[in-house]
Write a structure and sequence with these properties.
This protein has about 575 residues and is of the alpha+beta class. The protein contains 13 helices and 21 strands.
Length: about 575
């Protein structure tokens, strides 16, 4: 569900329980959309995350650390100046609007006790974090807004702060069901109608209530009363969150979690951190995938040109024949009168053959030109065939990269793949730059060794350990560093996929273990959705990696093949 007014109220209620009376001892600004306040209260340290991201706006206690810029931004420095040492006296909301007001007792430059307010407005693209003095005047804000930015208010230093105008009804001012019914009886549907009539109540919340109370989305007195009573309970009682179709929703069911920790806040924290990580992963993977697919398009075009050149080389023998026939018939011509001549082909039962010629040059020059073209294509054929083999190998390698990216599960997986391709000139041109919005730990630390972070997929099969690589780098790591000569190596036959290594500890595994390993390797291949997939396996001593070969490429001998159905 959306982070609406009811959700905000539940979070604020818990914040009052855990951090009210606490002192602010740290302020961080990890990015342009977030402020994190370090708070010490009752012998415990808390971190209050205030995010005004358009898609993930929220306020909640967090346990997740985030990297901070080397130099603190101006607004962060201003908050440190005014808030560090300040005591939290009250945390409240503006009605059911997603506006959280934190009252703080702070000392000014003259060591006088003053009250400042930190306003966290959670309103989608209009979200903001604003610091006010004791007269309600804006000291500064994370975002400066005025009429030029299509704002209805001026959020600028030295301006008096005003709450945003509200066009919806305040549910907290509804005194009873009859008044609620009077405002709701003419709505078309419950979910859209109630959310567009009353502030702080989202459409997703109403849909959740309808499911929770097994109520149809039809406007009548009975259904409205069920929804009204549930909303009243949400406001009056503690509510809890639960998972719901990759989203979260509220429930009035009894909480079974440990009440000594801010469960609601941590639930929201886990939900949004997971959402942000997933978004970062998708953006990162798509950026790298765009680079790889651009290279694939370029190499595919190169192969097309090579095939066209090869087709041209197929005519080389014809040009040799033309040169020989012109030379053999040169006694008949001192010069050519037309653009072609017809002569007998003594290689084809003396049938006439039509030969294009250049009448502006001598017959011997025409013959010489045809011999020259023949020799040129003959020499080119060898070079182009070699180029074609190399290009096909490059395309095959790019396909393995795409396969790895499609099967990547998190940012670390994509980092390993990117660390591989950035070492290969095949993928980079002066026009390409990796998105500057993607900042990962490995990209910031170029000297960090990747090998120690290789974490292949691990399976326990009876008493054996079976390891599966997730990309070319991991495949190399398994096949060249982890595997011993007596271990078993697995790979799908002539199909892109992961390398698998069964750690045998110098024992002979049963056929059931071998079949299970083959099933796993088939699952981590492009044949995942197929059946009866052939999988090769052999001892580690028969697997070799040629010098200077591309990552993930090995040669193997003395192998056996088994056909299995993929299964993870």
């Amino acid at each position: 569900m959306a982070f609406d007014g009811i959700t905000t109220k539940s979070i604020v209620s818990e914040l009052n329980k855990f951090i009210l009376g606490g002192k602010i001892n740290k302020v961080f600004e990890p990015n342009k959309n977030e402020i994190i306040l370090g708070i010490y209260n009752n012998g415990k340290n808390y971190a209050l995350n205030c995010s005004i991201s358009v898609d993930n706006y929220r306020i909640n206690l967090t346990t997740k650390s985030k990297p901070n810029p080397y130099n603190a931004p101006n607004f962060c420095m201003l908050l440190r100046k005014h808030l560090i040492g300040g005591k939290i006296k009250n945390i409240s909301m503006h009605g059911l609007e997603r506006i959280v007001i934190i009252d703080l007792e702070c000392y000014n430059e003259l060591n006088d006790l003053t009250v400042k307010k930190l306003i966290i407005e959670l309103m989608g693209k209009h979200s903001n974090i604003i610091l006010l003095n004791d007269n309600g005047v804006i000291i500064d804000s994370l975002r400066h807004l005025d009429s030029s930015s299509n704002s209805t208010r001026d959020i600028l230093p030295a301006h008096l702060y005003e709450f945003p105008e509200v066009s919806k009804l305040d549910f907290l001012k509804i005194r009873n069901f009859d008044e609620f019914y009077a405002h709701s009886c003419n709505l078309e549907t419950l979910d859209s109608g109630i959310s567009s009539t009353f502030n702080g109540i989202s459409k997703l919340l109403i849909q959740s209530i309808l499911e929770e109370t097994q109520t149809e989305n039809i406007v009548n007195k009975e259904n409205l009363e069920k929804v009204y009573n549930y909303l009243v309970d949400c406001i009056a009682k503690p509510v809890y969150f639960r998972d719901y179709n990759k989203d979260f929703t509220l429930t009035l069911q009894q909480n079974t979690q440990d009440t000594s920790v801010p469960y609601l806040n941590y639930f929201i924290d886990d939900f949004y951190i997971s959402k942000e990580n997933n978004l970062e992963f998708k953006n990162y993977r798509n950026t790298v995938l765009k680079l790889v697919e651009g290279t694939l398009k370029k190499i595919t075009k190169k192969l097309k040109n090579i095939n066209a050149k090869l087709k041209e080389c197929e005519d080389k023998d014809k040009f040799q024949l033309y040169g020989e026939l012109i030379t053999a018939n040169m006694y008949k011509y001192k010069e050519f009168d037309n653009d072609y001549i017809e002569v007998e082909n003594y290689y084809d039962s003396n049938n006439l053959v039509k030969i294009p010629v250049d009448k502006h040059i001598s017959p011997s020059k025409n013959a010489k030109n045809y011999y020259k073209k023949y020799n040129k294509l003959k020499n080119a054929l060898e070079i182009v065939n070699k180029q074609k083999a190399e290009t096909i190998e490059e395309l095959d390698y790019i396909e393995t990269i795409i396969f790895s990216l499609e099967n990547a599960k998190d940012v670390i997986d994509v980092e390993e793949i990117y660390s591989e391709i950035k070492e290969n000139e095949l993928f980079f041109s002066k026009k390409f730059k990796l998105s500057q919005n993607i900042k990962t730990s490995k990209m910031k630390n170029k000297n960090k060794k990747v090998d120690k972070e290789y974490i292949p997929i691990e399976y326990k099969i009876e008493d054996y350990t079976f390891l599966v690589g997730k990309n070319n780098k991991q495949n190399d790591y398994l096949s060249t560093k982890v595997m011993r000569s007596h271990d078993l190596w697995f790979h799908t036959k002539d199909i892109h996929g992961s390398h698998g290594v069964l750690i045998t500890k110098n024992t002979e595994p049963s056929i059931d273990v071998i079949i299970r390993c083959a099933q796993i390797v088939a699952y981590y291949s492009k044949a995942r959705l197929s059946s009866n997939v052939p999988v090769d396996y052999t001892l580690g001593k028969y697997v070799k990696k040629p010098s200077s070969s591309k990552p993930g490429f090995v040669i193997y001998t003395n192998n056996s093949t088994i056909n299995v159905n993929p299964h993870s």
